[in-house]
Amino acid sequence: MTTRIGNLKLLSFASEIDDKTIEQAKETAALPFVHPHVALMPDAHYGKGSAVGTVIPTVDAVIPAAVGVDIGCGMIAVRTTFDADAIENFDRAELRTSIESAIPLSPGNYNRAVDRYPFTAGRIAVLEELAAADGVELSHSPKWREQLGSLGGGNHFIELCLDEEDRVWMFLHSGSRGVGNRIAQRHIKIAQRLCRQWHIPLPNADLAYLPHGTSELDVYLRDLAWAQRFALENRAEMMDRFRQAFAHWVGHDGDPAGLETERINCHHNYTVREHHGGKDVWLTRKGAIDAHEGVQGIIPGSMGTRSYIVTGKGHGGGLCSAPHGAGRRFSRTEAKRRYTEADLATAMTGIEYRHGAEWIDEIPQAYKDIDVVMADAERLVSIDHVLRQVLNVKGT
């Protein structure tokens, strides 16, 4: 369903959405430089500054807090040459332990050595070259090399999945880690300072923006592009480590790359230059994926429900975008109040995961029904593959 909210430049594709999220989206849509409208995705929910699941097209301005602090957060998925029968007799707990050894988990946990894997050095070199070429200042984030290939916490995860034909997929969700957070926080503060200095009235400080023609916007866009590339490379780095662990687990002696038949790597927290409503705009997808016609994307469910590989339909009303996941129904605090560790174990029946109370706030019931989200997204994307988890790894 699609709903136009009053006379505002706001379209909602969500059948399940609360009043707080609508009010937050109204504040964003009322900004004078929004064009042609704000689109609320089916998984939209209340967030910091602007709602998660919001697509925001802006003319000659960018809102750093709308992009968010996890710049370039997104998904990567790889289909392997294996099927369910081929891995049936292997101990999934062994693979989970191997993944947890290969990829640092949880906030603040980074690589102790950046030369453990032969492919890491090449990615670091690419990121160094990009920073030097674009004048990106990284001295404020000295640990970014150690952060490459680390997962983080919250709703970031690593999974082994089976699709509708029982083919094995590797699947993970992460972003730009601490370096992206530092970049974002610095520019959010600059935007807020400038808006105060210019006496610009805002419904909330997290809608502070950087306007065209200012050096502050130019610097932010350079830093933003680098952080988005870091997030892309971070996911690729983790996937290559995951693939190596998987190859060892199944006893594959050849090049681990030979296990891979398809790879999709996409952002869902980022800003990009696009053309909408007859104008070139800065399009911020805060919890949304690119769904231009023919573009493949990834929409994960919660840690105990289905996920989807999709192809965009290029829907203009949706600003060629689609949801980025199930979207939270309850806050982390509320989820911990409502559910127990036993509830989580029941929800995760049949899935190998690390048991513990630390993950109660990620219980599937804390999220919207992914089937409802996908039904709402029918005009935005077509479904290529439906994945179900058999193994899950999360940071705390």
Automatic annotation (TrEMBL):
Which superkingdom? Bacteria
| Entry EC no(s) | 6.5.1.8
Keyword Signal attributed: no
List GO molecular-function terms, semicolon-separated.
ligase activity
Q: Does the keyword ATP-binding apply?
A: no
Tell me the keywords, alphabetical order: GTP-binding, Ligase, Manganese, Metal-binding, Nucleotide-binding, RNA repair
Q: What Gene3D superfamilies does the annotation carry? A: tRNA-splicing ligase RtcB (3.90.1860.10)
Q: Which reaction does it catalyse?
A: a 3'-end 3'-phospho-ribonucleotide-RNA + a 5'-end dephospho-ribonucleoside-RNA + GTP = a ribonucleotidyl-ribonucleotide-RNA + GMP + diphosphate
Q: Which cofactor does it need?
A: Mn(2+)
InterPro entries associated with the record: RtcB, RtcB-like, RtcB-like_sf
Enzyme class of the recorded protein, top EC level: ligase
Q: What is this protein called?
A: 3'-phosphate/5'-hydroxy nucleic acid ligase
